[in-house]
Design goal:
The complex is a heterodimer. Helices cover 35% and strands 14% of the residues of chain A. By secondary structure, chain A is of the alpha/beta class. Classes of the chains: A alpha/beta, B alpha/beta. Bound molecules: thiamine diphosphate and iron/sulfur cluster.
Chain lengths: 297, 393
């Protein structure tokens, strides 16, 4: 444990059990104080920047919802031009700000090769505006704009494979991580910071409010997401997926129902009657993915 | 000082180059494209020590401007029309964060129907973003106003973004002779940008906070006070510019208005035509004058009132339209007189939209209509369109 002061701490107003501050704290503490951070509009910004307070002990800028990546592009170039090229530039975006509305800005930043470390904090819906679906929302999840109902299973599209899409830009480093494995997360942050050029970190951050689970279960949920193969932990240098490194392989992968059953957003798959076809499809997709990635030991 | 003959875009690019920006994020759009091309060329040839960011959209151009400016870099960009509409969200944010970004604009119409020609709708539509707005009549003004804009915007009493508009094609693509100021003099006039507050790891600070109802109004009030202050700062900077470079700028530039019954207000390149028309009409003994606005934001309301209060009619020419109302300039000029019991009659002429030529005859027609208004003693049709082709309607 480093003896430094927390760089993200005092007075944030996130819900109890929110995964976002846990991830941000770990990432900033790994990066250290010589960092400029950027956030998108979303829960993280709202809970941490209410004027005249701030939870950020590194310089932070929030501009809008869709443009962490392009604001970061300007910052990275300006710092380089002003002779401060050793400063880390870390851009945070929610899944909405990254997968959807900020996708173009992200792609542009990656393609231009900026030395920016982009972190997507994925809680699988637009939480700040009240749990609307996003292209990150998993198949079968109920949100306020993909509600489960008599004629609806909830979200009916699979999650967009964003980290793979980012890696396909042939950026030097892409990784997925989650707060249940802080050492793995920190190691990936360190690798990204030591790697010159654009890096993309996809971090799963459970949201008790949107996923509907009790707030002490955040870490457990993140662990289950990995343990069931829902969320695969990997890293890749460049774009050749043959070189992918699965950082958490699974021995005796758990059935996905163990993950689904713990969350209100999937409750309609079990009540009033079990929607076996939907659960089977979710399981089948995971099995195929794990096989493709070589997740199972 | 060297005299060269160049297009308007090159004049604004040269103005930018002389101002030594650190970062130039830009995205091409007709009629401003030559600006990023010239900047790229200057950098490629080692004539300019700046970083260009070839962003993937105007929204990202303005976002990158914001990021770079918040680090304390001097930043500029260029755009027009659809590009300005696309970056609008971020223009409000640049102003709200008090970042002195400067933008060169090639003033162009907005779709639909899509049209690449001269019109002021693109920037007039952004008048409430909190940006300073300058409009050039000639390429020389485009060049000079870029340098002036940096100095005004970066002034500690202002700290706001600003734009310099040059008319599409009429200026952007037209060759005119310009005096190129000496780099040494520009460096003296516009020293390096040194903000007090910027993104600095040794003094961590949050930019772009969440502003609750308890505080939001105060942020806006402070911002409005700054743009009001800019009015004074602009006068100071214009005076300093004249001393240094010999060319005079004023927020409004009257021509033969002293005894005029009819004063015609214009912005941009049509102002030259207005003066030629005034000369022609004066030869026939008509008491007419004209006045151009070089500065539109902050609005030079007091100056306009002082100039026009003894005229019988103010004919406002708008190269923009707020549908369901009339021209923007008209509304704003009229508003200046609302609390005075006696004032000139004020009429609005929508003219030259989407690049339609503005001719000397048009000014004569506007004068004749104004005299009729004077005779009637009241305005029957406050907003009229000049040159409507009835055959296609
Ligand atoms: C251009 C624009 N569109 C919509 C919004 C409204 N909005 C603010 S935050 C948000 C959702 C944020 O979702 P996400 O990025 O997933 O972050 P989270 O709040 O879940 O952490 C939306 C839709 C906005 N601020 N700006
Ligand atoms: S809604 Fe979810 S993401 Fe937002 S603060 Fe609460 S727990 Fe965190």
């Amino acid at each position: 444990m480093k003896e430094e002061k927390e760089l993200f701490s005092v007075g944030h107003r996130a819900c109890a059990g929110c995964g976002e501050p846990i991830a941000v704290r770990a990432i900033l503490n790994e990066a250290g104080p010589n960092t400029v951070a950027i956030v998108c509009t979303g829960c993280l910004e709202v809970v941490s920047t209410g004027w005249p307070e701030t939870a950020w002990e590194v310089p932070l800028i929030h501009a809008a919802f869709e443009n962490s990546a392009s604001v970061a592009s300007g910052i990275e170039v300006a710092l380089r031009k002003l002779g401060k090229k050793d400063t880390n530039v870390i851009a945070f975006g929610g899944d909405g700000g990254t997968f959807d509305i900020g996708f173009q800005a992200l792609s542009g930043m990656l393609e231009r090769g900026h030395n920016v470390k982009y972190v997507c904090l994925d809680n699988e819906a637009y939480m700040n505006t009240g749990i609307q679906r996003c292209s990150s929302t998993p198949y079968g999840a109920s949100t306020t704009t993909s509600p489960a109902g008599k004629y609806s299973i909830g979200e009916d599209r699979p999650k967009k494979p964003l980290a793979a899409i980012c890696a396909s830009h042939d950026i030097p480093y892409t990784a997925t991580a989650t707060i249940a494995y802080p050492e793995d997360l920190k190691k990936k942050v360190k690798t990204a910071l030591e790697t010159k050029g654009p890096c993309f970190l996809h971090v799963l951050v459970p949201c008790p409010t949107g996923w509907r689970f009790s707030s002490e279960k955040t870490v457990e949920l993140a662990k289950l997401a990995v343990g069931t193969g829902v969320f695969v932990l990997w890293e890749l240098r460049g774009s050749n997926f043959n070189n992918i490194n699965i950082t958490k392989k699974l021995k005796g992968r758990k059935p996905v129902t163990e993950y689904l059953k713990t969350q209100g957003r999937f409750r309609h798959l079990f009540r009033p009657e079990i929607k076996q076809d939907v659960i089977d499809k979710i399981q089948k997709d995971i099995d195929e993915k794990c096989k493709r990635f070589g997740v199972d030991l | 000082m060297v005299k060269i003959t160049i297009r308007g875009n090159m004049a604004t690019a040269l103005g930018a180059k002389l101002s030594r920006p650190d970062v130039v994020p830009a995205y091409p759009i007709t009629p401003s494209t030559l600006f990023p091309e010239k900047i790229s060329e200057y950098i490629a040839d080692g004539e300019m020590d700046a970083e260009m960011i070839r962003v993937e959209s105007e929204h990202s151009a303005m976002s990158a401007c914001i990021g770079a400016s918040a680090c304390g870099a001097r930043v500029c960009t260029a755009s027009a029309s659809q590009g300005i509409s696309l970056m609008s969200e971020m223009m409000f944010i640049a102003a709200g964060m008090r970042l002195p970004v400067v933008m060169a604009v090639g003033n162009r119409a907005l779709a639909a129907p899509i049209n690449i020609w001269c019109d002021h709708q693109d920037t007039i539509s952004q008048r409430d973003t909190g940006w300073l707005q300058f409009y050039a009549e000639k390429n020389q003004e485009g060049l000079d106003l870029m340098i002036i804009a940096f100095k005004v915007c970066e002034d500690k009493r202002v700290l706001l973004p600003g734009m310099v508009g040059i008319d599409a094609f009429v200026l952007t693509h037209t060759l005119e002779a310009v005096d190129v100021p000496d780099q040494k003099l520009v460096d003296e006039f516009l020293p390096k940008y040194k903000p007090e507050l910027y993104l600095d790891p040794s003094k961590p600070m949050t930019f772009g906070s969440f502003g609750t109802p308890e505080f939001y109004q105060e942020f806006k009030y402070a911002q409005v006070k700054a743009i009001e202050k800019a009015s004074e700062v602009i006068d100071e900077v214009f005076a300093e510019f004249k001393k240094k470079f010999g060319r005079e700028y004023k927020k409004i530039v009257p021509y033969k208005c002293e005894d005029a019954d009819v004063i015609i207000l214009t912005m941009g390149s049509m102002s030259g035509t207005a003066r030629a028309a005034v000369n022609k009409m004066r030869e026939k003994g008509k008491k007419v004058g004209c006045c151009k606005l070089t500065v539109y934001r902050p609005f030079p309301g007091k100056e306009i009132v002082d100039l026009t209060k003894n005229a019988k009619v103010i004919a406002v020419l708008d190269r923009d339209i707020s549908p369901g109302f009339g021209g923007a300039l008209y509304g704003e000029v009229a508003a200046q007189f609302i609390n005075t019991s006696e004032h000139p009659l004020i009429t609005d002429y929508i003219i030259g939209l989407g690049g339609r030529d503005v001719l000397i005859e048009d000014f004569e027609e506007i004068y004749d209509k104004s005299i009729e208004t004077v005779k009637k003693g009241r305005v029957e049709k406050p907003v009229e369109w000049i040159h409507l082709n009835q055959e296609v309607l």
